[in-house]
Amino acid sequence: MSIVHKRSKPMNALVYVFLFIVAAFQLFPLVILFINSMRTDVEIKQMPIGITAHPTLQNYADTWVKGGYAVAFRNSFFVGICVIAIVLLFASLAAYGLSRLDIPGKSFFIGYFMFGMSFPAFLYIVPLYYRFSTIGLVNTHWSLIIIYSTSYLSFSILLVRTFLIGIPRALEEAGKIDGCSELGVLWHITMPLCLPILTTVALIVFVWSWNEFTWANTFISRDSLRTVSTRFYKFASEHSNDVAKTYTAGLISLSPIIVLYLCLQRTFIEGLTQGSLKG
Fold it and tell me: Closest Cα to residue 256, out of 135, 108, 80?
């Protein structure tokens, strides 16, 4: 026992060193983004990496107004919240059916969802654009909501189902004995227990929706409907000579994701680890 314990100390040190290096590589771009967002364009061009003696927040005010980020944030939040609501509703119902109910062809549906995840979404971008243009969905947020919801649904169903498999059936059977219907068991017993995985799915779906660019750039061309990702691309193209404001626009675009991860990281990790272990 003592030999194993002595050997584990150097190994633990190596693990911590490795994790520190990985964390440094991950955080370095964000730190540079934050520092340069408070420097002037002249300072950045003279020294791309450095700390300014006179930090300024003027870049944030100018970028927010010139980039139209108030409208872009509103659009992205609207799309993201709608997608989260749709995905959580259908994913929870489908996952409950696949993990709890005796459905004919259950294995087929599980394989179908896994098979659907293997197809790149860009294979049907042209036919979808043609179809959506004929029914008037191009240049509407509903085109993105429909595409995002269907694209993320298969993954969400399988992830929630994996979590549900680990929940003891005795809890649900006790609810049925007390007179709960199948829907009552789902709503009052199963869903509260699934809060960690539902939070994880919501966060993943929101991040995907917030960062997605190709579909948003293809189906949305009006400035008043642009999401944050396409707005950043347009702003960076128009202000390519102003490096400071480009850094600031990038940090503004990432700020909601950073805040969400910082606030929900414990629940996010709990949902992922419990889901993977229970699978």
Answer: 80
